[in-house]
Amino acid sequence: MSTEKFFNNTEIAFALKSKKELQKAHFLFKTMASPTLVSVGSKIALTSLNIGLPVKGLIKKTIFSQFCGGETEKECLPVIYKLNEKGVSSIMDFSVEGKESEADFDAAAKKKVELVQFASEHDEIHIVAMKPTALGRFGLFQKVSEKAELTTNEQEEWNRIVARFDAICKATYKAKLRVLIDAEESWMQDAADDLVELMMERYNTERLTVYNTLQCYRWDRIDYMKQLHERAKGKGYLIGLKIVRGAYMEKERERAEEKGYPSPICATKEDTDTTFNTALSYILDHSKDFSVFVGTHNEASSYLAMELMAQKKMERNNNTVWFGQLYGMSDHISFNLAEQGYNTAKLIPFGPIKEVIPYLIRRAEENTSVAGQTGRELSLLNKEMKRRKA
């Protein structure tokens, strides 16, 4: 691959971190290298918060500050401004999960519309994010995905979910921003797909507003993408896709085994990589119909995207291609991409500490389980700490 390799540049990657911040990040990733410490620490943190022990300050200064921008939008602003100094945009994500009442769903939709307004007032934010099941019950998404007949009450409940989706996407469209809609588990994804396609049909005609998420650890997603392409051409709307490898692998395999159906997950990591790269190539081959958000912490896939863009003579800042990583991870990818002139964003989770703990635990577990992730972070932090001593 002819694209120059530059992700090893730790001076650019960690330009925003002080010596103390480098040391703190090193300590956290070293801790996350131990599955036992992550498991025990997660249980202690949850229990301590639930029984009211005074641990909030400790959590906020450590894992929370590593992976979250703050507890409120305004508290995130210093992070947003700092990232923007290095050419990195921010994606606001109110990361409160697990709600189940209609009042909670209405509140979540209202919060997302407020976030769109907040983003529209800050040039550093081009994109917002939302999760389908933040707006409605898991069980109803599953029932709709299974094409089961709904009761009158369930149909009314589903109509309210559609209305919440529409309110957020309409606000995003009016603000001339973009919204990334997360993926869900396979047994509720079909309902989410149908909803997102409806929003694309409404709000992706004149310009790109709505993105669906393609989880490439699912072996059926290439076929879905191609069928979506045909539907979009027939109805005359643009397609936005965030491509990721995926986030529910163990849960998916366990459920498939328990219920006796074929696992929707690719057999090997190599198969997942192939699916991701195939999706990326297909999208860039049809860039007049697609916009892509390359959501990856994988260096090889990032280099492939840059190589394909160069082959197709696409400008680095072409607005149909964005790269993104989670805040607190893979700074060597994000900041070096931005330095090279590519559209780059960090997903900035925020929310009350107690309610964001499930998100933080997932991040810690992900760093523990993803092969090489923590080791790569540690080696780059070590390299930068040594460079600064030189």
Summed up, what is this model?
This protein is of the alpha/beta class and 390 residues long. The chain contains 16 helices and 8 strands.
Level-1 CATH class name = Alpha Beta
Discrete helix count: 16
Query: How many individual domains?
Result: 1
Please list the strands of the largest sheet in the order they lie side by side: 1-2-3-4-5-6-7-8
Helix-strand topology string: HHHHHEHEHHEHEHEHHEHEHEHH
Helix content: 55-70%
Radius of gyration: 20 Å
Shape: globular
Low-confidence stretches: none
Number of strands: 8
* Percent of sequence in beta strands: 5-15%
- What is the CATH architecture term? Alpha-Beta Barrel
* CATH structural fold name: TIM Barrel
User: Quick one: biggest sheet?
Assistant: 8 strands, parallel, barrel
Mean pLDDT: 92
Folded structure, characterized:
The chain is α/β, with parallel strands linked by helices and 390 residues long. The protein has one domain: TIM Barrel. Helices cover 58% and strands 12% of the residues. It is built from 16 helices and 8 strands. It has an 8-stranded parallel barrel with strand order 1-2-3-4-5-6-7-8, surrounded by 7 helices. Helix 12 packs parallel to helix 13.
Reconstruct the topology from this structure.
Elements: H1 10-13, H2 19-32, H3 35-50, H4 56-67, H5 73-85, E1 88-94, H6 102-120, E2 125-130, H7 138-145, H8 152-174, E3 178-181, H9 186-203, E4 210-215, H10 221-235, E5 239-244, H11 249-259, H12 269-285, E6 290-295, H13 299-311, E7 321-326, H14 331-339, E8 344-350, H15 353-369, H16 373-389
Parallel strand pairs: 1-2, 1-8, 2-3, 3-4, 4-5, 5-6, 6-7, 7-8
